Amino acid sequence: MDLQIAGRWAIVCAASKGLGKGCATALAREGVNLVINARNAESLETTAEELRGLDKRIKVIAVAGDIGDPQVRSALLAACPQVDILVNNNGGPPPGDFRDWSRDDWIKALDANMLTPIELIKTCVDRMAERGFGRVVNITSGAVKAPIEVLGLSNGARSGLTGFVAGLARQPRLVSRNVTINNLLPGPFDTDRLNQALNAEARASGEDLAQVTEQRLAGVPARRFGNADEFGAFCAFLCSQHAGFVTGQNLLMDGGSYPGTY
User: Fold this and answer.
1) Which pLDDT score, from 0 to 100, does residue 147 have?
2) CATH number, domain containing residue 173
3) What pTM does this model have?
4) Which residues contact 89 (CB under 8 A, 6 or more apart)?
């Protein structure tokens, strides 16, 4: 399927590895020009070179730094001639027990996983509407629908973003102008984040890591963890010309783990 987005420009955050890299890779294969961001300059440039090799027609610009820093956000936006596609993504806060978290811990989580994506959305969506095309995809977490006990900081911050998007995405002045905003909710994908969570569960329970991993897999009807390429492919479709009637949705990718109907 031709997604009809070749030649457009996309910003992809936290794109040097994992799900962000999967999204950037899928967009590059569709001929989308990219401005990618991650904290580590060396790994980001390595990824940029890989992406350039996928399609010689596209431009790939790397802007390293913490996306939570206003100066880094400004540099990222300045590097992109026009933002047609915005993929918000950021590393989640550390796991733990809420009894150990200070107010500063909560503020950091909210800033990284709620306020930063909102700031980027605010900068982009009106101009998208003026041009008659825009796609925003926020990578959040399956924990928005089924909270994970040790990820309380993430549960709270990402749920805040979800509530905000639910209202914004349905504004006629955006969606009637072909600007959509959706959330992708990954479940257990084979990423550094999952490995951190599994290790935290193992430490908390006193069980062996292999046991904890098997227990997690037992709760996934697909009997495997997801991979970044399949996640990226779904993200690319949401960013396509064909997805203009999908907005304000929380789309769960979890191999059937979530047991609910709604």
Assistant:
1) 86
2) 3.40.50.720
3) 0.94
4) 12, 13, 14, 15, 19, 20, 23, 138, 139
